[in-house]
Amino acid sequence: MQKSLFESQYDNTPIHLDMLDANLKYYPNFIPPLEAANIMCSLQQEVDWRQEQITLYGKTFNVPRLQAWYGDENADYQYSNLSMCPLPWSPALLELKQKCENTSNSRFNSVLANLYRNGQDGMGRHADNEPELGQQPVIASLSFGEVRNLDFYHNQTKEKVRLPLVSGSLLIMSGDTQKYWQHSIAKTKKVLAARVNLTFRYVLNIGRG
Ligand SMILES: O=C(O)CCC(=O)C(=O)O
Ligand SMILES: [Mn+2]
């Protein structure tokens, strides 16, 4: 049967982003807009958002976003000097995890949820290259709400690539992406509404009991 226009718009064909040393697949229409807007509302209300702090050179700062870490019981994670113990999965997060697993053909045991309240929230340059994520981690990143730019920087060539992540989109980062590239969400003076990002990961249970 022929697909309707609406269906064909949401047929989930990924865009392969052609970047040196990276493996990035972007699904702009992973979740249709109305459903994405509903998910955004419920995540804002239901996630146990926390204000984490970070200590740099003896000074303590609030991280410029709210965060929460959910996952299987043993999936604890060190992140920017923060040690995170996972909260138990909610049904909504489990459903999104399964959807990402089906599309990426990978397994995830945890998710880092980030709430960027406005343009003053962001995330500094980093790679998701902690040892407990393994050599070539597969990371599934779901975005809801305001469009924010994910900026990539190649460690050697210094190339920069800007990827605006729209609501309902899925970005799968795999292969050597974390080894060769860093990424960030820049702060901006523009008045922006809130955005929620969920990065599903598989944390290896290494170096513990
Ligand atoms: O908000 C984003 O799209 C990026 C989040 C991120 O890089 C992270 O959680 O490690
Ligand atoms: Mn990251």
Describe this structure in words.
With 209 residues, the chain is an alpha+beta fold. It has one domain: Sandwich (Jelly Rolls). 18% of the residues lie in helices and 36% in strands. The strands form four sheets. It has a seven-stranded antiparallel sheet with strand order 1-2-13-10-15-8-5. Strands 9-14-11-12 form a four-stranded antiparallel sheet. Strand 3 and strand 4 form a beta hairpin. The chain is globular and about 35 Å long. The termini are far apart. Residues 1-8 have low confidence and may be disordered. The site of manganese (II) ion has 3 residues, from loops.
Features:
alpha+beta; seven-stranded antiparallel β-sheet; single chain; 4 helices; binds 2-oxoglutaric acid; 209 residues; Jelly Rolls; disordered N terminus; four-stranded antiparallel β-sheet; binds manganese (II) ion
> Helix proportion of residues, in percent?
10-25%
Tell me, rounded to a whole number, the average pLDDT: 92
User: What's the CATH architecture?
Assistant: Sandwich
Q: How would you sum up the major sheet? A: 7 strands, antiparallel
- What is the assigned CATH homologous superfamily? Alpha-ketoglutarate-dependent dioxygenase AlkB-like
* List of distinct ligands in this structure: 2-oxoglutaric acid, manganese (II) ion
